[in-house]
Amino acid sequence: MAQITVVQITCGQCGHKFVLNTSTWPSTIQCPYCQEEMSQDMIPRVKEAWGTASDLNMDFARYHADRNETKFSVDLIAEQVHFPHE
């Protein structure tokens, strides 16, 4: 069994979610629903965040296999939270 870390983007324009193909990083990231395009300077940051989470998840899987430690995984999720004072 293989484990992969998936990049799911939520478009702030239309609210739809879409998954990036991390095997071939795109030169542009565009919402397939409304065609809104992500700023070019954000793409390397998305890739870096995915790489960090992917490496961490692979280490969790390896520690589980090699050391019999409990297997954990990390998913990064952004949510809007409104506090009562807003």
General description of the model:
The chain has one domain. The protein is globular, with a radius of gyration of 16 Å. The protein is mainly alpha-helical and 86 residues long. The model has no long low-confidence stretch (mean pLDDT 92).
Q: Could you give the count of β-strands?
A: 2
How big is the Rg? 16 Å
What is the straight-line distance between the termini? 46 Å
N to C succession of SSEs: EEH
Please give a handful of descriptors for the protein shown.
2 strands, 86 residues, 1 helix, mainly alpha
Outline the fold blueprint.
Layout lengths: L7 E3 L6 E3 L23 H25 L19
Antiparallel strand pairs: 1-2
Short description, anyone?
The chain is mostly helical.
